[in-house]
Amino acid sequence: MRFTKMEGLGNDYVYVDGFVETVRDASALAVRISDRHFGVGSDGLILIQPSESADARMEMYNPDGSRAEMCGNGIRCVAKYLYDHGIARRDELTVETDAGTKELELFVAAGVVERVRVNMGPPELERGRIPMKGRKGRAVDEALEALDRTFRVTAVNMGNPHCVTFVDDAVAVPLETYGPVMETHPLFPERVNVEFAEVLDRNRLMVRVWERGTAETLACGTGACATCVAGVLNDVSDRAVTVQLLGGDLDVEWSEATGDVLMTGPAREVFTGAWPDGE
């Protein structure tokens, strides 16, 4: 089975071209191929599949084998693969995901895609749509207890669930201590991605991410979008921001006119290889 390793700001995935390859057990393959010691090494597995309604369908699996609805960095790489490998050679594409069909604008230089803008659609803010237990309405600047600390969190669904908390120093947060506790907090029945965000100014946020089913990653596209939305809801940032992640920067805007969240960032192919089988 042929595969391609790709990354967006260090958020790396193994991609399999479902137009030519068949994967029998994607969940099991994700566990094996994502292992950084005994496999290829990645933040998960993404299958690029044919779609009846879009240019392609993205299926994403975390390193623990669980299925994820959406990945902002991952979908930019899907768009790059479709264009660079001649499957859909246009600068505007659509990709079907478990979180709906997304529209993408490609920025091409010397015949290859360098950056991609994704229309992530509007955020879901009602608790039941996160999902998050508790009273009806939005969870904005709400207390959440984790071990010995109480965090003020804002819940946002960007196709997958996020819990954003603003802190004075994102680097100083012991993410490996609080991340897994918040990810599996009883308030979130489907677990949650956790963002610790530091406001540098109203147009720049620094974010560290604990991803559901993965642990800390260098970048998270949906997490950057959720943080932008949370910044507006808490009036600590403007609607257009640069989100500084460990792997680099993403430009995110929550459009006041349409309500959609637009995310722009790089996509890069690292290498290709052959895996012994499709399981």
Lay out the secondary structure:
Blueprint (H helix, E strand, L loop, with lengths): L1 E7 L2 E7 L8 H9 L10 E5 L6 E6 L5 E2 L3 H13 L7 E6 L2 E10 L2 E8 L22 E5 L2 E9 L3 E6 L8 H9 L9 E9 L2 E8 L3 E3 L3 H13 L6 E6 L2 E7 L6 E6 L1 E7 L5
Parallel strand pairs: 2-3, 4-6, 11-12, 13-15
Antiparallel strand pairs: 1-2, 1-18, 3-4, 4-5, 6-7, 7-8, 8-17, 9-10, 10-11, 12-13, 13-14, 15-16, 16-17
For the termini, the CA-CA separation is 9 Å
* Overall tally of structural domains: 2
What is the CATH class of the largest domain? Answer: Alpha Beta
- pLDDT < 50 runs, ≥5 residues: none
CATH topology of the largest domain: Diaminopimelate Epimerase, Chain A, domain 1
What fraction strand?
Answer: 35-45%
The CATH superfamily name of the largest domain is: Diaminopimelate Epimerase, Chain A, domain 1
What's the number of extended β-strand segments?
18
Rounded Rg: 18 Å
Overall geometric form: globular
Biggest sheet record: 18 strands, mixed
Could you give the order of the helices and strands? EEHEEEHEEEEEEHEEEHEEEE
What's the number of helices? 4
CATH architectural name of the largest domain: Roll
